[in-house]
Each structure stands twice: as C-alpha cells, then as structure tokens.
Amino acid sequence: MSKLKVGYLSLVKGSWINDRLEGQRQQTLKALAKLDVEIVDCGLLIQSEVEADAVYRKFAAARVDVILAHFITFSLGSIVPGMAVKLRKPVIFWSEPEPPMTGGRIAANSFCATNMNAHALWKMGLKYNLVYGTVKTALPELAQQFKVINCIKRLQYVRIGSLGGRVPGFYTSDFNELAMREKFGAEVEGVTLLELVNVAETIKGKELADAVKQVKGKSKCLVSADELNKGAALFAAFRKLTVKYRLDAWTARCWPEFSEIYGIGICHILGCMTNSGIPVACEGDVYGALAMLTVKDLTGSDAFFCDLISFDQQGDTGLFWHCGAAPVSLCKPGCTPELRKHSIIDGGGKKGIAVEFPLKPGPVTVIRIGDTRDGKGYRLLSISGEAVETEQLLHGTPLSVRFKRPAAELVEKLVDSGFEHHYVLCHGDIAKELRQFARQLDLELIEL
C-alpha cells in the first residue's frame, strides 16, 4: 500500500498578502515533510478560483486521499467547497492562532475562514475535521488525523478469511457481507476446515521444524511433542493459505468440531497468527477481525480478542478474558507464557494447545464494530480504561481493566444496548482517533 497522499492547499486572501506568507508556506512544507505521508503541494499561495481550478486538476491527477486546507489568512468561501465536492475526499481544515494583537488591523483571520468553510461542507454533507495550532503545535494532531484516514483507506483493500464460518448459536458473529463491503471496503473469502487440515498434513521436515520454533517461541511448553508438531503444522498451513488467498486477517470456527477433526485445539495457533501480523478473531467473528485490523493500524500493536466475563462495582473494574488465543506480545512483563492443555475442550485438560498468561497493564481502549439494530448502518463502541496488574486468576488470558465510569453503569449500558459479547482490546488510548474514524465513516459512536 502506498503512502497517504495529502493535497496541501495554502490559502490566503489578496488583501492580506505580505512578504512573510510565502516563507510561512515553505516552513509548513518542511514540517509536513517529516510526517510519513506523501505531500502533493499546490505550488503557490492560492487566492482565486482560477488558481484553485488548476490545483484541483493537479490533485485529481495525483489521486490525493485527503485535502489539507491551510488557512494562512482568511480566504474566499468558494475554493475549498468547490474542490471538496469535485474530488470527494475528506478535508482537514488547518487554522492558525491569530498573531499578537497590538491595536492595528487584523493580521490573518484564519479561524474565521475555517468557520465559514466548515458551514459549506456541513451543508453539503462532506467530510471534514479541524486542526488548530501553529506549524509546530499542529503537527502531532495532523499526524494523528492522517493515521485515521490512512487506516480507512487501507480497510478498503482488506481481505478476511472466514475459516469454516461462525460457531453454532453465536448470532453475535453474524455479519452482512455486502453492507460491510460497501461501508468499509473489506471482502471475505470463505475457506473450509478441510482445506486447512489437508494443507497442515503436508507440512514436513525443515518447514515443520521452523514452524515449531515460532509456535513455541519463549513459552514454557506443557503439551506433548505430538501436539506441538500438529500445532506448528497448522500455523504453517495458515501462513500458506494467507498467501494463497491474499488475506490480511482471519476468523476461525474454532469449535465444536475442530478438535475432533484434527486432534488438538486451535487457540494458540490463532494467537501465533495475530502475533505474526495477521490478526485472527475467534468463533467466526468477521466484524471482530475488522476491529482487530483497525486497532492494529491505529496503535501499531497486536489486539486482544476477548469476552468481558465479570465486573467489580467497588473497584469499577472489569475482567476481560479468552480461553487461550492471545498473542504472546501482550504478555505481562516478568511472566512466561505457558502452552497448556485447553481448559474447556472435552471438559478440560485433555487436548492442547492453549496459551496462558496475564496481559500487560497500561492505558487501553476496548472497541466493538457491529450492525445497528435496523441493519441499515454500523455502530462503534469505544471504552477507555486502564489495565491494572493482573494475576493468573484462571486458565486462559485474563486482564483486569479499571473503567472511567462506574462499572455497573457501563455494564448496564452494554446490555441495554444489546452489544455483542465479543470485544477487541488494544493497548493505548485511541478514543480521539476512534471519534474521527466514526465521523468519517458515519458510524454511530457510543463512548463509555
């Protein structure tokens, strides 16, 4: 995927022109060059619609992904709306604080220009956001907004492998394939359990030995060599099918039949895939895989696909957990992941492989992408919290999170709103990014 292409539009009004403005424009371009984007420069201080028309053609030819409308001074109200409606790309309005006022004429009037232009885009239903600050102070927020727009761009090309469909009775793993394709761009490729198993049974020799090293890693192995080998063969098969079907993520029908078909549980192998850069959602949850891809793009780290299994009203905490598919990259410092018999399959303690460890503490964000009740749109749940030091409270991968509101109130909202029981947890506070994500995609946002 190529870098995000940013059309830089430096805007002024003729009556505000002075000698310092071109220098300010050049200083801005130098600052923007430090960001991980491709800048398509308009080439001059834009004052008129005639100049803007030539720039529109330049931006269209370059196929920019976003328009950065930098109001160095006040500007005419027709330039940005005209360009936005032609290009149909989101706009970031950049306003700078007014220079020091010493009793003379107004020096820039930058924010007023944003205010006026935002009204026009709002009336037309076009997408826009605001950044306010100097070249120095605005750069971090610009980087954050570019990251979100780039994430949305990447999702348009995502392919998710659905291994075996969803598990029985889990309506929370249902999804609308065409609606998801229209909204996010993501497509789904169905893959059978039989194909995965057939490929796994062909993995031998050095290929198997290399896969064993990756599956075992630095974990303490408490399963048999046969189980470890079978798990490694599965991992190698997943990797082969990822290439074959050009996949970015997976979902897996991890029960009930898988352990009977293949002889072991699949959990840790799903975690190994996530840990290797290909997120996998359990129990056939396609929207869960989409959410894992989203948070990985926004944070740069692996996601935890999980359930909320208990909450404490006194401490306003909730315990997030799953049975053994978390990526080992999320292990709490000082702990060693353990590869064990699965605690649930066949009554527990019969077959490998599940991984066990408590997850690391720190700021976290929990999200859920799902359908609205009428099925005509999507909603996005965003929960901010602080993951606290968690012990190995039970088999699997637990993490206790302290919420920013009363736990009982939060849980009541989750149940009353009918949210799916699967969540995606990532380390880092991305609440602000998720607001922009929801705004750009017209998602119903629920923040808790």
Can you identify the CATH class of the largest domain?
Answer: Alpha Beta
Largest sheet: 6 strands, antiparallel, barrel
Low-confidence stretches: none
Sheet/helix structural class: alpha/beta
Terminal residue distance: 33 Å
Record the SSE blueprint.
Blueprint: E1 5-11, H1 20-32, E2 38-41, H2 49-62, E3 66-71, H3 79-87, E4 91-95, H4 110-124, E5 128-132, H5 135-155, E6 159-163, H6 177-183, E7 187-191, H7 193-200, H8 205-216, E8 220-221, H9 225-244, E9 249-252, H10 258-262, H11 267-275, E10 280-281, H12 286-299, E11 304-312, E12 317-322, E13 338-340, E14 354-356, E15 362-371, E16 378-388, E17 397-403, H13 407-416, E18 422-427, H14 431-441, E19 444-447
Parallel strand pairs: 1-2, 1-3, 3-4, 4-5, 6-7, 6-9, 8-13, 9-10, 16-19
Antiparallel strand pairs: 11-12, 11-18, 12-17, 13-14, 15-16, 15-18, 16-17
Task: Pick out its properties.
448 residues; 6-stranded antiparallel beta barrel; L-fucose Isomerase, Chain A, domain 2; alpha/beta; 2 domains; Rossmann fold
Structure commentary:
This protein has 448 residues and is an alpha/beta fold. It has two domains: 5-155, Rossmann fold (3-Layer(aba) Sandwich); 159-447, L-fucose Isomerase, Chain A, domain 2. The chain is 38% helix and 23% strand. A six-stranded antiparallel beta barrel has the order 11-12-17-16-15-18. A hairpin with a 6-residue loop joins strand 15 and strand 16 (378-388). Helix 3 (79-87) crosses helix 4 (110-124). It is elongated. 46% of the residues are buried. The mean pLDDT is 96.
